[in-house]
Each structure stands twice: as structure tokens, then as C-alpha cells.
Inverse folding.
């Protein structure tokens, strides 16, 4: 929420109580990156697999252009000399065969300088960027200085648990909320835990005990793995020039000059506090603060892409189903309407697939239970489709697993699992790091201030999200910088995107990197594809007048 000059991205999405992707999506979905696509097309004379070859040609063409693709597909053209190939259409050029202006560009080395440039493309967060002409990669660096407050403390003489939080700023409204959440944790322990057992819980779950260095190492590795090498860019001046992307976090204890972010990592168990990033000056790349729990580094304990609806014994009736086993929680119709409100697709989007997996207990005949599990998932699918779920008409996929996975808790086994997209739980720390990289929240919430909405008009997610389909901070930069990218663009929608509820880094999440690349090189680039760029493409001219085959 903007507050005068402050911009806050607060509280990663949490459960309340009680997408037209790229033409390259099909290309990449079966592990067919650019290098593999080249191999597939090279084998087209000896291996007859036309469907796979067709996907390879379509996907590769979107990256290198049709003329360069033709040189791969038509060996007669490949054997011609460089004058027949057409200028500027190869995809990877030997150093002594590249255009002179491209060679001069790369000879500049590291751009704009070895120190890089601090940038804040959207006014959220900030980072350092530089392009290395030798390795042909965009290098993104986050400098993060961390302090490690303890969450709670305990008086050894009275066993009274109170807030510690040394280093938190009680005058900051956002950090006040963190302190309140810590106080709630202390209250729970005082109420629910015997006095003699409190010290063990506080000292093991709420206080640091020497693992800070290990936490920083894990965070730096997670940033590299989660954000680097997910997509690449292609020069619009020289289509044979690619840029890969590397992301690194320079993490250290305490604060140093040049830090892009000052972080406070509070020791708590899962769910102890919320997480947020706030930026003070939108034009200052070194003026961000991140606060989150020590447990935020890893898949969140409450996976927001997986939900369950529980059924009565020998029943597939939605009316008697509930959000908790044994008839507890929200009734079935209300629960599914809230699910629809939460996971409707943004206008014009297909929405992500939703798996509906029916299950049954092990009580009774196995064949009957298989049929029962299928009826349960079919009932949920029919309810969703007839009560306004938006997006593609076939985004739901129902199936039954019968007794598979059933446990001795029969009530808990009688259910339908509802899984959105990949179903993978979000790493909250990597979501918050997305804010440091200039990205806004993409998850959606329903405004239900003071709990005034009827239950069936509410949703599952709380936080600082926007209405489904709303534009967000990096929407414009997507539209301007990634017009050629095979994406829907950045709008608010609950799905498995890393800036929504999941962990998938999609092309729009490289929009701030694209902006940085154009800034530090002074050249125009476009989206290239998923993963790292290809190492070479047949049809590339060589110094002796031939081509790479």
C-alpha cells in the first residue's frame, strides 16, 4: 500500500480463517529447450517423428526467426556460401565471422562498467546489473545485510514468555504488526504450554542458536537457483547474440554501505509472523527493507495451491460435504464458491489447470470405492463448472484414486483434492526476493473489511493483493519491454507463479531484468526463451565460407 513516499508489499498471502502462455510453452513443456530442438531437427532425415519435429520447428522459430530456421530445415541452403544466407540471421556466430559492429559491442567488455549499475526499474526494491560481453550474460546482484532478532524470550525464574524482537522498530507501523504477531505467539505459549515445558519451546523455536551463517548460505543458494537461468534474451540488433541471466545474492550479517536491502530475519516457527518488503525512496535502489521469519526459507507449511473437500461416508453429495473431516468447517457449497472466488481466471486468460482427485477410505469393497472416488471428483467438477468458474472450459480435470493413499483416519480419506497448476508450495523467502527485484504481488484477494461479506462471496487468501485481473506495478514494463514474449503479461490472478501463490518464474518475472539489460547496454533486446540460450545453431556462417552443421 503506497503511503506518501513509502511503498509496502506486505504479508505474503495467507489463508483466511474460516493463462495463454507462450507459443513456446508447448515447445518447452516436454524439456525441449533450444539445444534439444536443434538436435531434433538435425535428425529429421534419419528419425521420423513428425509431431516432435513440428514442435521443435515452431518453438525454435519463435526464438531465431523464420529465415534462420529455414537454413536448418533446408540443407541445400545450409551448403550455400555466406552471401546466400542473408545478413544478420545466424543465431550463434564465430568471433571472426560476426558483424564488425557486434564485435565492437562485445569488445566493450563489462557494461556499463565493472562496478555495474544500481537500478530500480519499477520503484520497488533495487539491484545491481551489468552485462559481460565476454560471457554474454546479464549479471544481477542483490546486496543484502541481515540482522537476526530473536522472536521471544523467557524469564528462567518465572517461566513467563514475552516478546524479544531486539532490532525491530516499534515506531514503524509495519514492524508494529510484526511485534503484535510475536506477542500473539507468546500468548499462545503462556496459555497452551505447561510452565516447565516453555523454555524448551522458546529456546529451540524462537531464539537463534548459532545457525545464522547456515541460513545466509542457504538463502544465497536459493536466490541463485530460484531466479537465475530461467529465461534468456536475444539482441534486436544482432539476432545471433544472446544474453543468459545469472542472479546472485551477496549476503552478510549486519549492514554495509551499498546494501540494496536491510533485512531482519526473526527466529520463529512456521506461521510465527508474516513477511513483507517495503521501499522508502522509489528512486533509490538501496533503500529497501525485508522482514520475515527464519522459517520462510523453504516451502510454506500451508500450501495455498492445494485444498481438500471432505465427504460423508458413502457419499458424493456436495451439500453434505465440508472443508474439514467429519463434517467440521465450512459447508461444501460455500467452500466451493469461495474456491471459485479465489481461483477464477483473469479476464481473457485461460486460467491454470485444476486437478480434482477423488479419494475414498479403505472401508468396504475396493472396486466400489474406486467408483465412489470418481463420483466425488465428478461432483466437484460439475459444481465448479455450473457455478461460475472462469477460464478455459476444460481447465478442470477430474479423476479418482479409490483407496490409494487411504489411512486409518477414514474421515480424512473421504475427500477430493483440488490442486492448482503445479501444486508446489511457495518458498516465501523467494517470493519476497521478487519484490527486491522490482516485482509486485500477483496474487489476488477479495476486500472483506470487517468481515461484512456473506460467506459465499469471500475467498481463501488474505494479504495486500488486488482484484482478479487488476494491473500491477510491473504490468507496464511487461507490455513495453516484452511485447514479443509469449506470455499473458502481469495481472493479478491466483496461480502457481512465484509472485502469486507458487514458485514458477515465468517470462514476465524477467521484465525488470530486461529493463536493466537495455539500460546497461544501451541496446534493444527481446525475450528469447526458457532456460539458457542455445550454444550454437546449424546454418551459422564460418570464416571459410561454409556454415555450422
Amino acid at each position: 500500500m503506497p503511503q506518501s513516499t513509502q511503498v509496502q508489499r506486505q504479508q505474503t498471502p495467507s489463508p483466511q480463517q474460516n493463462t495463454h502462455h507462450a507459443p513456446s510453452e508447448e515447445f518447452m513443456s516436454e524439456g525441449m529447450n533450444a539445444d534439444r530442438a536443434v538436435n531434433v531437427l538435425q535428425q529429421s532425415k534419419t528419425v521420423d517423428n513428425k509431431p516432435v519435429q513440428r514442435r521443435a520447428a515452431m518453438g525454435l522459430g519463435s526464438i531465431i526467426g523464420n529465415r534462420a530456421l529455414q537454413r536448418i530445415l533446408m540443407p541445400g541452403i545450409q551448403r550455400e556460401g555466406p552471401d546466400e544466407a542473408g545478413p544478420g540471421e545466424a543465431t550463434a556466430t564465430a568471433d571472426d565471422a560476426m558483424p564488425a559492429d557486434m564485435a565492437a559491442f562485445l569488445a566493450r567488455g563489462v557494461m556499463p562498467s565493472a562496478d555495474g549499475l544500481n537500478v530500480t526499474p519499477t520503484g520497488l526494491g533495487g539491484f545491481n546489473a551489468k552485462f559481460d560481453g565476454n560471457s554474454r550474460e546479464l549479471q544481477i546482484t542483490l546486496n543484502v545485510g541481515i540482522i537476526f532478532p530473536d522472536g521471544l524470550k523467557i524469564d528462567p525464574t518465572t517461566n513467563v514468555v514475552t516478546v524479544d524482537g531486539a532490532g525491530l522498530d516499534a515506531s514503524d507501523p509495519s514492524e508494529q504488526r510484526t511485534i503484535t504477531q510475536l506477542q500473539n505467539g507468546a500468548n499462545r505459549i503462556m496459555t497452551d504450554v505447561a510452565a516447565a515445558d516453555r523454555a524448551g519451546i522458546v529456546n529451540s523455536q524462537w531464539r537463534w542458536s548459532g545457525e545464522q551463517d547456515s541460513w545466509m548460505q542457504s538463502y544465497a543458494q536459493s536466490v541463485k537457483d530460484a531466479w537465475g537461468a530461467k529465461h534468456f534474451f536475444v539482441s534486436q540488433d544482432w539476432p545471433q547474440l544472446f544474453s543468459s541471466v545469472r542472479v546472485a545474492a551477496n549476503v552478510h550479517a549486519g549492514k554495509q554501505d551499498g546494501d540494496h536491502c536491510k533485512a531482519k530475519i526473526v527466529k520463529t516457527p512456521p506461521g510465527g509472523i508474516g513477511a513483507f518488503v517495503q521501499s522508502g525512496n522509489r528512486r533509490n535502489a538501496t533503500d529497501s527493507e525485508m522482514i520475515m521469519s527464519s522459517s520462510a526459507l523453504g516451502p510454506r507449511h500451508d500450501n495455498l495451491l492445494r485444498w481438500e473437500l471432505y465427504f460423508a461416508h458413502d457419499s458424493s453429495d456436495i451439500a453434505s460435504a465440508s472443508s474439514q473431516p467429519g463434517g467440521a468447517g465450512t459447508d461444501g457449497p460455500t467452500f466451493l464458491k469461495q474456491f471459485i472466488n479465489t481461483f477464477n481466471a483473469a479476464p481473457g486468460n485461460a486460467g491454470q489447470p485444476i486437478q480434482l482427485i477423488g479419494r475414498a477410505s479403505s472401508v468396504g469393497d475396493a472396486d466400489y470405492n474406486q467408483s465412489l472416488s470418481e463420483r466425488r471428483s465428478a461432483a466437484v467438477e460439475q459444481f465448479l463448472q455450473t457455478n461460475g468458474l472462469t477460464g478455459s472450459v476444460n481447465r478442470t480435470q477430474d479423476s479418482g484414486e479409490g483407496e490409494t493413499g487411504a489411512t486409518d483416519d477414514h474421515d480424512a480419506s473421504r475427500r477430493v483434492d483440488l490442486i492448482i497448476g503445479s501444486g508446489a508450495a511457495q518458498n516465501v523467502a523467494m517470493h519476497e526476493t521478487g519484490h527486491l527485484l522490482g516485482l509486485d504481488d500477483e496474487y489476488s484477494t477479495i476486500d472483506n473489511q470487517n468481515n461484512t461479506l456473506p460467506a459465499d462471496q469471500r475467498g481463501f487468501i488474505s494479504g495486500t493483493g488486488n482484484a482478479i485481473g487488476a494491473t500491477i506495478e510491473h504490468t507496464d514494463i511487461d507490455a513495453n519491454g516484452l511485447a514479443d514474449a509469449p506470455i499473458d503479461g502481469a495481472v493479478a490472478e491466483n496461480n502457481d507463479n512465484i509472485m502469486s501463490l507458487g514458485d514458477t518464474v515465468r517470462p514476465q518475472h524477467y521484465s525488470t531484468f530486461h529493463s536493466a539489460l537495455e539500460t546497461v547496454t544501451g541496446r534493444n533486446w527481446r525475450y528469447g526463451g526458457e532456460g539458457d540460450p542455445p550454444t550454437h545453431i546449424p546454418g551459422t556462417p564460418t570464416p571459410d565460407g561454409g556454415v555450422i552443421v
Q: What stands out?
A: The CA atoms of residues 354 and 495 lie 10 Å apart. The first strand starts at residue 7 and ends at 9.
